[in-house]
Write a structure and sequence with these properties.
By secondary structure, this protein is of the alpha/beta class. Helix content is 35%, strand content 25%. The N and C termini lie far apart (38 Å).
Length: 233
């Protein structure tokens, strides 16, 4: 199984999961780049995975599904207008010969879900490298609970988030903990990668436990205070 990225908008990553001649696309906010990629690689679209209903994650679905009408579209109830398979927390199904588990990871939106495909996590905007999504719902408990689910995953799980926010997130973390050498070293590494135009994703759960202050929050109140500070950063 290979996983490649297609860039969209200013900082979105659309992930393309490839197995042989088949592909699964995650959160296609735009269509043209995805269809060009599939055509160039001569891939047949098997399915689309949607984590939530924000336009920068679903905006390309209709155009893509018009070209690939046989493709399944999996998503939470909030995507029911475009998804033909509504999935909920605890569901599992098979894609490209792999087992996919559905995790409810709300907070960013009420119905946000993540997909765990063997040891690979597609978490949309619920978890970023060194950060997490804004809590637009104001349900900080839901977002905190989602982070606790992520913390329980194996350290080796690879994290494919939907945005290239790592540099800013680490700058924030460094401002909060300027004497934290692990965060300082991670920021230096990421600055070098971004200067070369390299993506900072995927990361791993093990790495995030070391550099992600949101995962380290000991309770919901601490998390909320941290999230509010990040919103103002």
């Amino acid at each position: 199984m290979d996983i490649n990225l297609v860039k969209a908008f200013s900082d979105n990553y659309i992930w393309i999961i490839e197995e042989g001649t088949e592909a699964v696309v995650v959160d296609p906010g735009e269509a043209e780049q995805v269809m060009d990629y599939l055509a160039e690689k001569q891939l047949q679209l098997n399915s689309i995975l949607l984590t939530h209903n924000h336009d920068d994650h679903i905006g390309g679905v209709q155009k893509i599904s018009a070209k690939y009408p046989d493709a399944s579209i999996y998503g939470p109830k909030e995507t029911e207008d475009i998804a033909n398979h509504i999935v909920v927390d605890g569901d599992s199904f098979n894609l490209l010969g792999k087992n996919v588990q559905v995790l409810k990871t709300g907070g960013h939106t009420h119905g946000h879900i993540s997909f765990l495909m063997d040891n690979v996590l597609f978490c949309g905007d619920a978890l970023f490298s060194a950060g997490c999504g804004r809590v637009f719902t104001k349900d900080y408990q839901a977002q905190y609970d989602a982070l606790q689910k992520f913390k329980q995953l194996d350290d080796e799980v690879q994290v494919y988030a939907a945005h290239e926010y790592t540099q800013t997130n680490l700058r924030f973390a460094h401002s909060m903990q300027p004497s934290n050498t692990v965060i300082s070293e991670a920021l230096d590494q990421v600055n070098e990668m971004r200067a070369k135009g390299k993506p900072t994703l995927p990361t791993t759960i093990g790495r995030e436990k070391k550099i992600n202050l949101f995962l380290q929050a000991e309770n919901m109140e601490d998390f909320k205070e941290l999230r509010n500070a990040r919103d103002e950063f």
